[in-house]
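Example record

The entry below shows one chain as it appears in the dataset: sequence first, then structure tokens.
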Amino acid sequence: MHIAFAVGATQGAAKVTARARMGAMTGRMARTRRAALAEAVFERLAAADPEPKGELDSVNPFTLLVAVVLSAQATDAGVNKATKPLFAIADTPEKMAALGEEGLAERIKTIGLFRSKARHVVALSKALIDRYGGEVPRDREALESLPGVGRKTANVVLNIAFGEPTLAVDTHVFRVANRLGIAPGRTPREVEDELMKVVPPRFLAHAHHWLILHGRYVCKARKPACPVCVLRQICPWEPKTAGAPG
């Protein structure tokens, strides 16, 4: 009985190992297919818009950092309306800190959550002065140590201000990546990690801009504009909205 049990256990372990290997192989094959689709996706997006730009206005890395912090749960247009006069008088950490929370809050009160955002921006401005000589660091860990700065904000700053091949996953990128199936994930980090594995290196500099703009203006949440989408013929998402192929 002991021998039979041992043989059965060995066979069971072998089956588990075989299934694990098969699962890993299937995962690699699936990723290979997703990588091929991702290449086709970015080739089409690049052809349609060779030099995509972020829509938040800024004049230097510091004002970009501030704009991204302010953009949480707000529209880029709304942020730009508030920051145009703000950045005219406070485009450095020293000037921003000098405004103080109340002074800054008064200038960004048209933006949602303006009081907590004012607190974060003044605090991060002081942190930049105290820790980094008033300069925005070109380092993820350092950026994420600043008040109000998370991974997405750090990725945006690293990409736009410093040209790093990072991918910021906001609600638009998350939706588009999952609909296309190029980077399925249940969390922004899962989607980011998958995108970094399948996006061809030559497209990484602009990848998050293409996906954000595509999600914002074409692959919208409630009613995607499938008839005019440049990806319609290769997009596996169903049901597509009605209309002639774009």
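Notes for this example: The first helix runs from residue 2 to 48. Residues 61-162 form a domain with the Endonuclease III; domain 1 fold (CATH 1.10.340.30).
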